[in-house]
Design goal:
The protein has 415 residues and is α/β, with parallel strands linked by helices. It has twelve helices and 13 strands. The two termini are 22 Å apart. It binds glyoxylic acid and manganese (II) ion (2 copies). The site of one manganese (II) ion (MN) has 6 residues, from loops.
Amino acid sequence: MLHTPSDETIDRLESGLAALAEFRDPSRPGWTREVFSEPYRASREWTAKRMREAGLEVVVDNAGNIVGRLPGEDPSAPALVTGSHTDTVDGGGRFDGIVGVLGAIEAARELQQTGTRLGRDLLVVDFLGEESNAYGLSCLGSRAAARELAPEDLERTDYRGVRLGKAYADYGLDPSKLTEIPWARRRLHRFIELHIEQGPTLEKRGLPLGVVTAITGIERFIATFTGSADHAGTTSMEDRRDAMVAAAEAVLAVRSEGCGAPTHGVATSTRVESESRSPNVVPSLVRMYSEVRSVDEYWLSGVKGRLTGEILAKSAELGVDVGLDWSTDNHIVKADKGVQDVVASAADSLDIAWAPIPSGATHDAVHMASLAPMGMIFIPSKDGKSHCPEEWTDTADIEVGVGALVQTIKELDRL
Ligand code: GLV
Ligand code: MN
Ligand code: MN
């Protein structure tokens, strides 16, 4: 039986997307609403209000997550959790994460309007700062909920040298209490997140829904190349120790690593910064930022060794020293098979065609998976575009996702 949304649901989804899009940094392209920024702070009051209007009891926890509770028949039973995020990348779009928060609020509203009382509490969470930020760390709120935010993470600095711990304090959160989150210390039943696919697979296959099987692991590194500053007019090509050329070789090595992946694997360099300002000096100090992702455990586990070897060898040929600082943003996480089965059966019961699909993007679900069996529902992204202003998903597609989410919540509640 197809789920038929009411006109009010469609209006609320569309007006919600438009209202959140207004909270943006006008000096940046697209719909920029980065964690800790003023537009983000202002948007959170709007989101909390929308949760209250939908009949949820709202608290903001010590990590800055907004949590709306729909009480169930037995408040002592492990709670069912759903949600996503409303921050964006710099120059980002209007749907990534936002659909999962607005969709979860609509789901809670629909449960009440249809007189469906769940056996257990439903928690709708808008997690703080999911996108990787100036501190190079994603999923701040869900990491804190899962106690995966370590004290040393708070020592990370942005490009101005500001500590993450200070950014939290300036935002009004106590850095020493971030993981003191009562709702996350209860036993939790399941976690389910609705999200746009952010890639082209569903659209290309003409499918309205994806049942997520696994979420990519992410390995990142910052490379520092140290060569020698010399006169760009008088130093012969063979006598140079050019840090920029070593970085350029490393950018290509990162790309060929991604191109050589046997199944799913991608590799990206996002920034190369040179300390040399003058066009007539051979660059002597260059920093480069890269990441590699895959849902293929075997391939991803070898990437650090392979790339380190290649970059060191190429740099040595050029007489350039290199230091590589590797960090794991997150390991590959598989979605719980039982939750996948429930999403699939919910889709089948609503006559929604679906396919299993891995996620090349990371999500709050990665961290929630350490608190409860986790699953995700994907809906199509137009032209597969995301993390850019053109990001788009039709309201009709969002509505299908919300319908599947409601049905999934009902079926998960009964497990
Ligand atoms: C977030 O969208 C990420 O995949 O980095
Ligand atoms: Mn997202
Ligand atoms: Mn994103």
